[in-house]
Amino acid sequence: MKLTKTIFSLLILLCCLLSNIFAQNILVNVYGRKTQSLNGRWDAIIDQYDQGRKNKIYLNKKPVGKTDFYEYSFDGGLKLNVPSDWNSQLPELKYYEGTVWYAKHFDVPKDHIGRLFIYFAAVSYRCKVYLNGKEIAEHEGGFTPFQVEVTDLVKKTDNFLALEVNNTRTTDAIPAKSFDWWNYGGITRDVMLVSTPKVYIHDYFIQLDKQRNNQINAVVKIAGSQVNVAVTVEIPELKIKQKLVTDQQGIARTSISNVKQLQRWSPESPKLYNVRVSTAEDVVNEMIGFRNLAVKGTGIYLNDKPVFLKSISFHEEIPQRKGRAFSEADAVMLLSEAKALGCNMIRLAHYPQNEYTVRTAEKMGFLLWEETPIWQGIDFENQETRKKAGVMIKEMVMRDKNRCALSFWGMANETQPSKARNEFLKYLIKCSKEIDSTRLITAAFDLVKFDRDRQCFVMDDPFVKELDVVAINKYMGWYHPWPVTPDKAIWDVARDQPLIISEFGAEALYGKTGDTDTASSWSEDYQARLYKDNLEMFKHIPNLRGISPWVLFDFRSPFRFHPTYQDGWNRKGLVSDQGFRKKAWYIIADYYKNIN
Prior knowledge:
By secondary structure, the protein is of the alpha+beta class. It is built from seven helices and 34 strands.
């Protein structure tokens, strides 16, 4: 019996030790807390052969004795900007896939008296984190945040933080071995040292009830399952002040009924309210909007009114800079072009984009579709890949669940039907709904085919019944020839559900004129003609509730080999890589202006 107890105790101890080196559940609204930026110029070492860990360069040792020497040094070498990708910072790293070590020294704030966390908004694609010579965390996934508590691990001054970052593509990764966008590596988003009280507000979820337009629901989580903690939720403009007490799980809940004079958020009027969540020790402020979103039959309803989704997709990339978008200024640039186009929605392709983009989009009045990079080629049989996907979607939903602009959680893009695929995606739906059951669930498919016997477009994938809204990628006139003229292109797809055309378009090199009937011309004229033809076809889709052309800007992709017209760029953008609008841009702008 004693031996059994000893083994059990050792197992518990081992689990505790292991838990310390894995990222913890993220804090809600980090940008609304007390933080110290760790951005800036970081020391870096390119480790092409993965020798850094073997040589323990995270110890950052310096020679002391006459015979001491080390075959590395962070001092006096390469420096890289954080946040940013490494590919755009050095010509030698343009196509680099492998390991780069980052390092930075920092001091703890002098007035700190609580707990400390290092928060990484995103590191691409996988990384290990070392602090003062010890491994403290690891994370996989290039587009979601993670954090690690360092309260008992830091010194007052001269802490040495090192990251081993690797962007090598693998078959079990998400996205997998190949994908149609640039494989940017590096610390691509903000790094922050976050200070909290000892007992702090870990999480909250505050939103308008899914059915009721005058009831606000709030759930607040205090870290450490603290019982009987007094929590206050305030919305001063609405004269709301609710006092709550946490239960055995450290959770406090309330439903505030009969809220008066509530202005619901919409693209036309993106109203946000200051919401204050506080305890005796901690306080967090955030701007939150309130709206109702639902599916009724084949309609999508926003604030009880049918809405047609005038969407566009873009990648997290500034094409003129040939690098990742990472700042608020970058977000404004991308979103301003979408606003000029007349959009009311953005599909954030094909991964959770940075929080500046999400929050700025909400302020500007865009509905959002956000998805994890389950994009073709995923190994649905691999249970480890499935677990990774579950973690990623939870991190995405945790980060953005308080954003009222977030309307769709996307489960996948262009996947092939199979039992393994279906179970994998059902698991992702389950993971998202465990945190947030209020958003609409969607996925994009490229399986629509023309049935010559019935003379209409059809799709056979029973999984669509798991979704609230069905989305279709279909490149008629580009990857698929027209089987009938556009005015006779009838659709019978997901007939009892709302349908979005989530991708369509063609590649065109800006400034290239040519034959309007020939795809091989790569001309703006052909792209414009194709857009007109597709818009004609859309008139014959009875359950169509939105479109999202592919794509706003030309973007970089190693998929694209044509030396004259592509040269490593996907040219389907309505705007060129230099920021010039193509002819098709004006066709969509006119369409969006005139459709309700």
